[in-house]
Design brief:
Radius of gyration of chain B: 33 Å
Number of domains of chain A: 1
Strand content of chain B: 15-25%
CATH superfamily of chain A: P-loop containing nucleotide triphosphate hydrolases
Structural class of chain B: alpha+beta
Radius of gyration of chain A: 17 Å
Oligomer: heterodimer
Number of helices of chain B: 16
Helix content of chain B: 55-70%
Number of strands of chain A: 10
Order of helices and strands of chain B: HHEHHEEHEHEHEEHEHEHEHHHHHH
Strand order of the largest sheet of chain A: 6-7-8-3-9-10
Number of domains of chain B: 2
Largest sheet of chain B: 6 strands, mixed, barrel
Number of helices of chain A: 7
Structural class of chain A: alpha/beta
Chain lengths: 228, 417
C-alpha cells in the first residue's frame, strides 16, 4: 500500500467512483494515495482496472462518488465547478495520450493559452516564459509552427510544454506515450523524471509499459479499481 | 485581443464559408427590415401629410353623435320608458350661430377657421347634366385653410370672390359637362332655387371623387341656392399643430355640442389599415430574421460539434463553464454584429435605390399623386434592425453555447484516447 509521505501535495482518501445505472459500475474502489512534491509515480494495471478514472479524479476533472482529494492539504470536495477549474488552471497540468493541441493555433500560442487564461504575467513575460519552456523541451525552432506540421513526438512535447505553462504543482499524464515509438516514449519519461527532480513538480502518470513504469519512484498497481 | 475572443474568432475563421452565409443571412434580414420600414413609414407619413395638407384638421358639423333624447327618457333615466310614434322635427338645419362660433374659434391661438355650407346641386350645361356636392366657402378663408388655391389649373379662387355668380369646378366634372372657363351653367338646388352660374375656376386635387363631384362657390351664393340664409353647416378648422387635433376637437365638441371630427378620427379606417400593414411587414421581416437566426444556430452548433475536443482540453486546462459559454456567445455576437453592420449597408443601398426610382402615372399632379416612392430615413430603423439581429444572434448562440459548456471533459478525453 501507500508509503506514508510527510507533506503530500496531492492526496486521495477512500476515493471511489461508481458509474450510476441499472447495473452500477465501480471504476475506482476506495483508493488511498499520497504524492509528495517532486515524486514521480506510475499508475499501472490491466485494461479497465480504473487507472485513467483514478487519474481524472486526482486531476479534479471528475468528481468522486465517495472519498475526497486533497490538493496541497486542501479538501476539494466542497469546491464548486469554477473553483475546481481555477485549481486545474493554477496547480495542475495534464498530458493525455492524444496531444489535444488547438489545431488553428501555433505551438507557441497553444502554450500561451493557459497563461493568458490565468493572466498573472504581462504578455511579453508570458511569451518569454513559453519560448523558454519550448526551448527546454527541444522545440525552440517549432514555436511558430502549427501542430499538424509537427511529428508525433514533437506534438506530445508541445502538449507537455502547455501542461507546464503555469508551473503546476502536479503533472498528471494519461498514457502519454501511448501513441509514441520507444525512443520518443523514453524522451517523454526523461522529461518527467528531470521535471520531478529539478523543479519539485510531482508527476503522476498512467502507463501500461512495464519498462517505463520501472523508471518511476513508485508504482501504484490497480486491479478492479483497487490498489494492490 | 482577449483570449476567449481569439478562440471564438478562430472557430469562425475555420468555417469561413458558413460564417459568410450566416452573416449574409443576418445582413439581408437587417437590410430588408430597414428598406421595408423606410418604405412603409415613408408611405404612411406621405399619406398622413397629404391628408393633413388637403383636409381640415377638425370639422365641426351640424350633426350630433347621439340622437336627441326624448324628455321622458331624460326624466326617468333608470325607468323602462318606451316612446312611440316619434316624428322628426322639421328643424332649420345647420350650425346654430355658426358664423359667431367660427369667429369665436378663430380667436384661439394658431387656428385658421373656414365656415362653409355644404349641399347638393344639379348642374346643367347644354344637354349635359351632372349632380355635384356644392360647398359654399369664403374664398379668402379657404385659401388659408386648404390647398385649393394651389390646385387651381384655370382661373383662381380670387375670381370667386370678385363675382357673385362664380363657381369652381373640378377638372373631371368640367370635362364631363364640356364646360370651360367663362361658360355659363344652370344650377338647380334641392330647394327648387335655380340660378345661372359662371365657371370662374377649374381645379385638380388628384382625388377623382373630388375632381368629379365637388364644386365651390361663394358662401352667399350657396345660401341663396339652398334657401338657407346666414346658415353654415360645416366649420373647418386648421391647427398649427395637427397632432393636437383630437384634444382640440374634444374641447370644441364639449363646448358647442356639435360633432367635431379630428382628421385622425375621419381617417380612422386608414390608420387601422396602417396597423395591419405594419403587422404584416414586421412579421415578414421577423421571419427573415428568424431564418437568419437559424443560420447562426446552425453554424455554432456545427462548431461546438467539431470543436468538442478543444472544448474538452480547454476545460481540463482550467476554463470554467462560463468561459466556454462566453466563447460561443461571442461567436454568435460576432456574426450578429458583422451581419448588422453589413445589413446597414444593404439597407442603405436598398433605400437609396428605391428612392431613385421614378414612376409616371397618366393624369398626374395634385396632392395625393407622387412620381416616386416616399421613403422615410430614420436612424431608429437602423438601431432597431441592428438590435434585433444582435439579440436574435445571442439567443441563437445561447443553446449550443450552453451545450458546449456542459460537455464533460472526461467523456471527451475518454472518447479520443
Amino acid at each position: 500500500m501507500t508509503v506514508p509521505v510527510p507533506t503530500p501535495v496531492l492526496e486521495a482518501r477512500g476515493l471511489s467512483r461508481v458509474l450510476p445505472g441499472p447495473v452500477p459500475v465501480t471504476l475506482v474502489n476506495g483508493v488511498d494515495v499520497a504524492v509528495a512534491p517532486g515524486e514521480f509515480v506510475a499508475i499501472t494495471g490491466p485494461s479497465g482496472s480504473g487507472k485513467s478514472s483514478l487519474l481524472y479524479l486526482l486531476g479534479l476533472l471528475d468528481r468522486p462518488t465517495s472519498g475526497t482529494v486533497l490538493l496541497e492539504g486542501r479538501d476539494t470536495a466542497p469546491l464548486d465547478g469554477d473553483e475546481l477549474a481555477r485549481l486545474r488552471l493554477e496547480k495542475l497540468g495534464f498530458v493525455f495520450q492524444f496531444h489535444f493541441l488547438l489545431p488553428e493555433f501555433t505551438v507557441l500560442d497553444n502554450v500561451l493559452v493557459p497563461m493568458r487564461k490565468r493572466a498573472a504575467l504581462p504578455r511579453a513575460a508570458m511569451t518569454e516564459h513559453a519560448l523558454d519552456l519550448l526551448d527546454r523541451l527541444g522545440l525552440a525552432d517549432q514555436a511558430r509552427k502549427r501542430p499538424d506540421q509537427l511529428s508525433g513526438g514533437q506534438r506530445q512535447r508541445a502538449a507537455i510544454a502547455r501542461a507546464l505553462a503555469n508551473a503546476p504543482r502536479v503533472l498528471l499524464a494519461d498514457e502519454p506515450t501511448g501513441n509514441l515509438d520507444t525512443r520518443n516514449a523514453q524522451t517523454v519519461f526523461d522529461i518527467f523524471r528531470s521535471l520531478a527532480a529539478d523543479t519539485g513538480t510531482a508527476v503522476v502518470t498512467v502507463t501500461h509499459d512495464e519498462h517505463l513504469a520501472a523508471q518511476t519512484d513508485r508504482r501504484l498497481h490497480l486491479v478492479d479499481g483497487r490498489c494492490v | 485581443m482577449p483570449l476567449l475572443l481569439t478562440v471564438a474568432l478562430t472557430h469562425l475563421a475555420g468555417r469561413r464559408r458558413q460564417t459568410l452565409v450566416s452573416v449574409l443571412g443576418v445582413a439581408l434580414g437587417v437590410g430588408f427590415f430597414i428598406a421595408m420600414s423606410a418604405l412603409m413609414q415613408g408611405f404612411q407619413q406621405f399619406f398622413i401629410s397629404s391628408v393633413i395638407d388637403v383636409s381640415p384638421h377638425i370639422t365641426l358639423s351640424d350633426e350630433h353623435r347621439e340622437p336627441t333624447r326624448q324628455p321622458a327618457l331624460v326624466a326617468y333615466p333608470l325607468g323602462a320608458v318606451s316612446v312611440e310614434g316619434v316624428k322628426p322635427r322639421d328643424e332649420r338645419r345647420g350650425v346654430k350661430r355658426g358664423l359667431a362660433i367660427a369667429a369665436e374659434i378663430a380667436r384661439l391661438p394658431g387656428v385658421q377657421v373656414a365656415p362653409s355650407l355644404q349641399g347638393q346641386l344639379f348642374l346643367r350645361y347644354g344637354s349635359a347634366e351632372r349632380n355635384a356636392t356644392m360647398i359654399g366657402i369664403d374664398p379668402a378663408a379657404e385659401a388659408r385653410l386648404t390647398r385649393l388655391e394651389r390646385d387651381m389649373v384655370a382661373g383662381s379662387l380670387h375670381a370667386l370672390e370678385t363675382r357673385s355668380d362664380g363657381i369652381a369646378l373640378g377638372v373631371a366634372l368640367a370635362k364631363r359637362l364640356g364646360a370651360s372657363l367663362g361658360d355659363r351653367l344652370t344650377a338647380v338646388a334641392p330647394s327648387g332655387v335655380m340660378r345661372s352660374v359662371t365657371v370662374s375656376a377649374i381645379y385638380r386635387t388628384g382625388i377623382t371623387a373630388f375632381d368629379d363631384g365637388t364644386v365651390y362657390m361663394p358662401l352667399k351664393q350657396a345660401q341663396i341656392l339652398q334657401d338657407r340664409h346666414n346658415v353654415v353647416n360645416r366649420i373647418r378648422v386648421r391647427l398649427s399643430e395637427p397632432t393636437e387635433a383630437p384634444a382640440v376637437a374634444a374641447r370644441l365638441e364639449a363646448r358647442y355640442g356639435y360633432k367635431a371630427e379630428s382628421w385622425q378620427e375621419a381617417n380612422q379606417g386608414i390608420f387601422n389599415v396602417f396597423v395591419i400593414q405594419n403587422a404584416i411587414m414586421y412579421s415578414t421581416v421577423g421571419a427573415i430574421t428568424i431564418v437568419a437566426a437559424f443560420g447562426i444556430f446552425n453554424i455554432i452548433s456545427t462548431v461546438v460539434f467539431e470543436k468538442t475536443r478543444d472544448i474538452g482540453i480547454l476545460k481540463s486546462l482550467g476554463f470554467a463553464e462560463a468561459d466556454i459559454t462566453r466563447i460561443f456567445l461571442m461567436e454568435g455576437l460576432a456574426v450578429g454584429v458583422i451581419g448588422a453592420l453589413a445589413g446597414w449597408l444593404v439597407g442603405y443601398a436598398l433605400v437609396a435605390g428605391l428612392s431613385s426610382l421614378r414612376f409616371s402615372f397618366g393624369g398626374g399632379g395634385g396632392a395625393m399623386s407622387s412620381d416616386r416612392l416616399r421613403l422615410a430615413w430614420s436612424l431608429y430603423h437602423y438601431l432597431a434592425g441592428g438590435a434585433f439581429s444582435v439579440v436574435s444572434a445571442m439567443v441563437a448562440a445561447w443553446l449550443p453555447a450552453r451545450r458546449a459548456a456542459r460537455l464533460n471533459p472526461v467523456d471527451i478525453i475518454r472518447g479520443v484516447s
